[in-house]
Specification:
It is built from 1 helix and 8 strands. It is α+β, with helices and mostly antiparallel strands. Strand 2 (46-52) and strand 3 form a beta hairpin. InterPro entries: Cyanovirin-N, Cyanovirin-N_sf. It comes from Ceratopteris richardii.
Amino acid sequence: MPTRSLHWIVTRLLLVVSSNAQIVKRECYGDFTESCWLAKVDATGMMTAACNDMQNHLQHSRLNLNDHIANINGALYCNVNGDGNFKQTCGRVSFEFPSGRLSAVCRRPGGAWAPTSSLDLNSCIANME
């Protein structure tokens, strides 16, 4: 009986930890397009935008997407480690605003081109100022 109780406690603890992780993730990421305007991405992967700060003043912002977006097996993914460098292996990069969608054709590890991949940058980037 003590083993069964311990299993129940561990299961409940894991559920609480995973629930808290989702809350933290939601608080850390998202919806930069709600407070930023005129966002664009240049050929090097640098994003520029005009974003409101906490006092609702417009600030000109720059963000190197290579630090936040990775090519994993031919698909674009958010990279929290700061070493994404998607531009090294992706081409035909396009960015849609106000949706915040980044699209590119990226190479797979063997060198073949994968189909076009797209990523909603609102899932990776937030306006924190």
